[in-house]
Amino acid sequence: MPQKQAENPGNSGNTVVRRFSVAPMMDWTDRHCRFFLRLLSKQTLLYTEMVTTGALLHNDAHRFLRHDASEHPLALQLGGSVPADLAACARLAEDAGYDEVNLNVGCPSDRVQNNMIGACLMAHPALVADCVKAMRDAVSTPVTVKHRIGINGRDSYAELCDFVGQVREAGCRSFTVHARIAILEGLSPKENREVPPLRYEVAAQLKADFPDLEIVLNGGIKTLEECQAHLETFDGVMLGREAYHNPYLLAEVDQRLFGSDAPVVSRSEVLAQLRPYIVAHMESGGAMHHVTRHILGLAQGFKGARRFRQLLSADIHKAAQPLAVFDQAVELLQGR
Ligand SMILES: Cc1cc2nc3c(=O)[nH]c(=O)nc-3n(C[C@H](O)[C@H](O)[C@H](O)COP(=O)(O)O)c2cc1C
């Protein structure tokens, strides 16, 4: 089994607390979504959507890196496999104040595979190690990797250990493990989050065999009880879809997973805090639904949840005064 390696006291990857995080999700965890989620939990580590090196280096980097000061702790996820480009992007991330730079080695879409981005890189551990090394040499911000437990044709435990071992040699100390393989041909990205079975025991074995590494578990986690149970084995848990569809789950994270004694924020308090943000966004030319599309799950489980969703996903598009529709939706959650 792999040799233990001494910690690098520099950018060891351990200054950011990754006990609970919300996953990077394309089209979902944009800056508006993250601003909203931050109102629910102060301690949760938030991730951006994946940004490719091409987008950052050849487009308007400011647009992709822009975030509100309140979003911290905040990690930028990069997609790419050219070490020099990733190093340049890591520098941009550091300059923009991100707390962590994460490399995507888990996304299975065809589009990214063609560009050697995402899960296909699990077949190229030496290249991923070069990428991580180049990024670590460029910045003092922690560099982490999010990956699968394998890909079709390369899904043995020995191959997983080889991948993690080589990337560890390059200095990565924190790995987020989506505990299913990715099937690179024939499944859509959505199916690749549902069809290959979850294998938490493989991720647990990884933690046992690499005890010096921070291993964060991802995939299929739905409740804070499950989080607490997984935290017996893992250093952290990352939630994606459940955090998005049922965001109020985050309201108790600080108390139950971080021991905070601050009062749990109510849904109506969250909406009251979100309102000035929406107003400012609209004053700068944005549309209300850019923000409110991310809050549709806030009423989940309540009488009125349907009406809440309908007001914010349909009625606002027809309204002359969208803020009045927002206020009507807020009324439905008064006192909740
Ligand atoms: C809409 C959507 C977009 C996603 N985009 C990304 C992405 O940009 N980068 C990434 O590493 N994973 C992405 N994922 C995968 C999630 O980060 C996470 O690994 C996966 O959903 C499993 O966690 P969950 O079961 O808690 O949702 C995406 C998932 C969803 C649902």
How would you describe this structure in keywords?
single chain; 336 residues; alpha/beta; TIM Barrel; Four Helix Bundle (Hemerythrin (Met), subunit A); 8-stranded parallel beta barrel; 42% helix; globular; disordered N terminus; binds flavin mononucleotide; EC 1.3.1.-; oxidoreductase; EC 1.3.1.91
- Quote the CATH topology of the largest domain: TIM Barrel
Instruction: Please count the beta strands (DSSP E, at least 2 residues each).
Output: 8
CATH superfamily of the largest domain: Aldolase class I
Total DSSP helices: 15
- The poorly predicted ranges are 1-14
β-strand percent reads 5-15%
What does this structure look like?
Helix 6 (125-138) runs parallel beside helix 7 and helix 12 (267-283) packs antiparallel against helix 15. The protein has 2 domains: 20-258, TIM Barrel (Alpha-Beta Barrel); 267-332, Four Helix Bundle (Hemerythrin (Met), subunit A). The chain has helices at residues 31-40, 53-58, 61-65, 83-95, 110-114, 125-138, 157-169, 200-209, 224-230, 241-245, 253-258, 267-283, 288-292, 305-318, 322-332; strands at residues 20-22, 45-52, 74-79, 100-105, 143-148, 174-178, 214-218, 236-239. Mean pLDDT is 93; it is low at 1-14. It is globular and about 55 Å long. Strands 1-2-3-4-5-6-7-8 form an 8-stranded parallel barrel, surrounded by 4 helices. The protein is α/β, with parallel strands linked by helices. Helix 1 (31-40) links the parallel strand 1 (20-22) and strand 2. Helices cover 42% and strands 13% of the residues. The protein has 15 helices and 8 strands.
